[in-house]
Inactive metallocarboxypeptidase ECM14 (Pseudomassariella vexata), 511 residues
Amino acid sequence: MRCSSRLFLLAALLLLRHQSSAAGLHQAAHHGTTSHASLWGQRRYEDQVVLRFNVSTVEHEAALRKAVDQMLLDVWDFTINYTDIRLPNRRIRPFLSLLPEPLRTEHSILIHDVARAVAATYPSTYKGDTEFESAMRERGITPKTVQWKSGRRRHDVDDLFFKDYQRLAVISTWMSLMDNMFRGRGLVQMFNVGQSYEGKAIPALRVGMRPAKPTKEPRKTILITGGLHAREWIGVSSVNFLAWSFISAYGDDDLATKILHEFDFVFVPVLNPDGYEYTWNVDRLWRKSRQRTSMHYCPGFDLDHAFGYQWDGSEHQSDPCSESYGGDEPFQAIEASQLAQWALNETTQNNVNFVAYVDLHSYSQQILWPYAYSCSASVPNLENMQEVAMSIAKYMRLVSGEHYTVSSACEGAVTSDSSVRRLEASGGSSIDYFFHDLGAKYSYQIKLRDTGSYGFLLPNDGIVPTGEEVFSAMKGFGDYLLGNNGIERSYPAAITPGQEEQHVMQQTWKA
Ligand SMILES: *[C@@H]1O[C@H](CO)[C@@H](O)[C@H](O)[C@H]1NC(C)=O
Ligand SMILES: *[C@@H]1O[C@H](CO)[C@@H](O)[C@H](O)[C@H]1NC(C)=O
Ligand SMILES: *[C@@H]1O[C@H](CO)[C@@H](O)[C@H](O)[C@H]1NC(C)=O
């Protein structure tokens, strides 16, 4: 497809406009940092480390939880094998003194210098400009030098777009560029799912080729979100990478083309735009939204604990200062509520049927299925859910050799009944909500790279390989859904372990 140079001029102008306002923001934030820093102490992470604990009993998990709450520390991640906690060097000793004996020794330093790792995730040329922005500006001035072609992946400007993590303004400009270039074919449509607490648009791309003749059948739709937690930049870039990969594969790649005929994707790369901006301008490791809470000095809601299904106001989820604060009632967090309202409206007014939901997070390389809120709630299509998770993991491994584990989202550091306070609150999650209330038969949270060397601070050379992993996983997933496996059919009998791999291969990777 030939693209007019007028478009590029337009895009470049948009970028320039955003740049100037973003530069202003950046300055403002810089001033803000000082007062913020005095308020919060170590805002710049000097002298901070991330510790990894080996938690092997329910009692130890509960003890760790208690100490974390008491000192208001930041839990980075927890899996069945480890729990990672960020804290200043000088607080290590007091923290360890709160823990039972084995935990005092069973830990290691995962990240020695958080400040340095933080600095390394910003674009190398970060003075307000990414290379993509400068390239677009230059090309805007001499648009003849730019050649966009459809059907070919990653070259020229798009190469640059995925070379760095990008700020919100650049992402929305890039999305409207996609809309401008491909809307004519009916392939892409940009829209907003709603507005954030601070009034920022929450942008989305709908990608899919509907039949020329409108049908009465609901349009099967796969919703992909990212950035619920502001600091998980790799989730944001991966949603964009997926969108771009499907768009550019259309017409060239048979499987992707087939998938786009049968399904619409809706890509929402930044569900938490206020928090995301904040991670660029003030605090790289901010997790929550920026909405005011009842405690003035503790703003922000954890969007992944704010949805309306099995929302719970349990102890550490109801403290506004907690990193897992889900609100005082379900859907109090604006962004979660906007996404749900939009989705409901799609099903009632727009003849959309959400067949699958995928929420991209980081880190720990895990594929998780509902229910997050409890291990004792049963999932009717558990066999299919597991089978697909395993195929997704397999396809990721085939592309890059990276190992992703699969499990239910309810599992914490150790499997347990719900009588013990878990390390991370788990009610009100988005995968539970879309699975249960919106009827998305397949609902996953995927925690992307890595397994802890950088944690949330994955350097920008991880953007493309992680994106490739997710793209091949979603193509495989789409292939499975094309066979209509489990969307409308009844569930097959459980697969015995010996046949499992073979079955997965046959079912899913026919190509
Ligand atoms: C974790 O602790 C368990 C039980 O104490 C022990 O068996 C295991 O080897 C430990 N793992 C690591 C990585 O230290
Ligand atoms: C935990 O460790 C075991 C043994 O090293 C490994 O097989 C498993 O995949 C790990 N699980 C997670 C969630 O990291
Ligand atoms: C609901 O969907 C209809 C049809 O697309 C649209 O016109 C309307 O604005 C939507 N309403 C809300 C509240 O989003």
